Amino acid sequence: MTGIRVLLADDHHLVRTGFRVILETEDDIAVVGEAADGRQAVDLAVRERPDVVLMDVEMPGVDGLEATRRIVAAGTGPAVLILTTFDRDDYLFAALQAGASGFLLKNGTPEALVDAVRVVARGDALLAPEITRRVIATFVRPGGTAGGRRTDSARLSELTPREHEVLVLLAGGATNAEIAATLVLGEATVKTHVSRVLAKLGVRDRTQAVVYAYEHRVVTPGR
User: Fold this and answer.
1) Where 4-aspartylphosphate occurs, residue numbers (predicted)?
2) How far is CA 34 from CA 6, 23, 54, 106, 209, in A?
3) Is 144 exposed, middle or buried (0-12, 13-18, 19+ CB in 10 A)?
């Protein structure tokens, strides 16, 4: 069985070693490269074609946010999972807007790290619960970092009523199982709806769909 191929990008050797030890205890995960800065991360992502890149934010030269933008723009395919000790909103929104598929703090557990790698490797997006709450809070704060756009009626009008319901639930942080329970649908049907929502909105994953929904005021907190 083909495993999940992971690239580690962090300017601290001990951190990379720790991540490698944690990940390579799993039978389905292999570390295929290590980068000490963003430029190396981009080069290795193009050459090694990993499934997931674990990306630090603050690195010398090209930082993790710019490296994420370049990897996503290159279209080589890996999902980027941002890991950082810096619990800052500006990093969070910059990472999401750069195309990251997930954002976790380094003070999480080894089990959370392994789970996150598996989640983004299968094409889902991941935000820690506390980060989701801050996304919502920031979008409704006057002058918030990522809010304020008018509704994009052209793309949104392509959604069916059911797909619109799915988008609203996605924006609230619901999982496929939770969406299925709320709408009384099978999970396979929900996955199909989610895929169609992403395609019609022109976003790459669930995280980007959440950002889109709040940027374009499809939903507001409390709804």
Assistant:
1) 56
2) 9, 13, 10, 17, 30
3) middle
Q: Is residue 220 part of a domain?
A: no
Phi then psi dihedrals of residue 32, to 5 deg: -105, 0
Residues 26, 108 share a domain:
yes
pLDDT score at 158: 92
| Tens of pLDDT, residues 47-71 | 999 999 999 998 988 999 999 999 9
pLDDT at 43 over 90: yes
Which structural domain, as residue segments, surrounds residue 49?
4-127
Q: Which of 127, 162, 185 is the last residue of a domain?
A: 127
H/E stretch holding 5: strand 4-9
